[in-house]
Amino acid sequence: MNLSKDLEYRQFCVFGNPIAHSKSPLIHNFTFSSFINEIGFLGLYGRYLLTEAKSLRDAFFELKLFGANVTVPFKEEAYNQSDEIKGIAAEINSVNTLLLEDGCLIGYNTDAEGFYQTILPYGFKTALLIGAGGSAKAIAYILRQKGIEVNILNRSKERLKSFEEAGFICWGTQNFEPKPFDIVINATPAGLKDSTLPLDKDLLSKTFLLSKMAYDLIYGIYTPFLCLAKSVGLDAKDGRDMLIEQAVLAFELFCRYKVNRDLIRKRMKSIY
Length: 272
Hints:
Blueprint: E1 8-16, H1 24-34, H2 36-39, E2 41-49, H3 56-62, E3 65-70, H4 75-81, E4 84-85, H5 89-92, E5 97-101, E6 104-108, H6 111-119, E7 126-130, H7 134-145, E8 149-154, H8 161-165, E9 169-172, E10 183-186, H9 201-209, E11 213-216, H10 224-231, E12 235-237, H11 240-254, H12 261-271
Helix pairs in contact: 1-12, 6-7, 6-11, 11-12
């Protein structure tokens, strides 16, 4: 590839903790270089281990970023530190994509639509969503928007309050009883760094036996959640496809929508 000495370089990254496992740099760097002629700049994308949530905004500007993705556990903080919120992020109070626009930090959410695209072909009507963080909010709202009944299960009743106020069916672990769901989604970090499950094993097993699919947002490892689902014969899916779909939408934002979405998706899937 012949690069002009006048070619503009733009820096991007993903913020998170933990972050070493993230495949986003692999996906975005390959795609930036693949579409350099179409987008007119060379994007450089890295990882950033953020130790304090309050330093997110400062880190963005200190690194002279043009855009960034935000992962666990900083999506709600990214919302709070944005100058302006656009799209569904304003409804769910969760931001996973930041963009520099006219010197301001603009917050978007690509998790919601990205996740939905991965389950669209199945025609699901009911979902059990385990977790109540930023990713869970994104998924809960997009599923309801698409006509899917959402049940939310979380250990902390305090974190369920906003979901209850928004009209979702909510369960604490103490009063949950297994019932059939088309899809059971793990939106917690359980299994990312350890061998824990997001719910008591017996309750989860019984729920799996009544359901059609188990979906873990964690990708790159076969989590205890997915292993348990497989052990009872349930179709199991990790977060790889969601990673790709939300990255496609984020890439569009980073590049100001100059590249065909299907081409971006195809290129990203070819590398990961």
